[in-house]
Amino acid sequence: MAIENELLDALLKNYKKPEDLIGENGILKELTKRLVERAMSAELTNHLGYDKHENGVKTTPNSRNGSSKKTILTRDEAFEIAVPRDRESTFEPQIVKKHQRRFDGFDDKIISMYSYGMTTRDIQGHLQDIYGVEVSPDLISEVTDGVIDEVKAWQNRPLESIYPILFLDAIVVKCREDKAIRNRHVFLALAVNMEGQKELLGMWMAQNEGAKFWMGVVTELKNRGIEDIFIACVDGLKGFPEAINAVFPATQVQLCIVHQIRNSLKYVPYKEKKQVAADLKSVYDADTVEQAELNLVAFAEKWDGKYPTISRQWSSNWANITPFFEYPKDIRKAIYTTNAIESLNHSLRKILKTRGVLPNDDAVYKLLYLAVRNVSRRWTMPIHHWKNALNQFAIKFSDRFKL
User: What are the boundaries of each domain within the chain?
Assistant: First the structure.
């Protein structure tokens, strides 16, 4: 709809500073208020069948009956409007329906603040400071609870038929249960699809992990459309290898190198972490498994005097680490890249830290889903080295590979 310059000039006739346009008593707020009121007046005219002061053409006994005040919340502000009424109370405005207190966009504001870890009290304070409007905790809960159906739809959405790489990990959430605060584990399945882009397939919460729990998760993934997974990287999740191989027998289970390194470095003080990490790299970055074994022996000779747990840890897990060396280095880089799972976990822990204790499971899923939705907006590019890795996958898994 074109707006004539003469109209704009008239509106800005007394404009001198930005506050005159966007301030508390600025033109934009007054213009929005007046337009909404005029629109409702036009709707009432259409409802009655005659314009104001046109009593001679009345075709109904119904008539205008003054107005009532209502405060409307928008994405950017709050303002009071006069809602016209009719004597028979049959008129319902469409631009601002009965009982409606918020324009489209205001709910998105609340959900956005919630997704970044703001508590109900934080959101209340922010809306009061910025918009000068009081919002009840019940309203905030009502708005954010609307996300639950979206979470369920997301958790049950169809998946692609092939995922070359699957990462499984867990984060700890403090949740209130039976008047006590307990640590709950939320398990995350982060995959890399055929385009090399990251995709969180789902989240599951359980008191105890085990083969039965993981069988349910893996079966759900299959029922949602997955036909094959080339490599599954895990961090010693109890019962998972048996479960995934029961459903996807050709999947190679690989101990996550990132977690192996992180578990090793927790024994090392800060001043020596850089050197220990560099020496560990000589192990997992070796060209062959034989060279890796020699480098692990050299690592033990150098560091066992100070940190004997590290080499013993790698040796005890060696059978689950060595499949890693069957792959070319391009695939290895795709498997152990820290960008795949660590950045996601860091973002989720940051959000959880601001919230402290969550009241129930729905609150956990709601918050984590919204946080993941924010993070995944940045997943627009393939992971590093993906083109080379994809070519290697096509060769190694030629009988299972398809685009």
Answer: 1-102, 105-145, 160-396
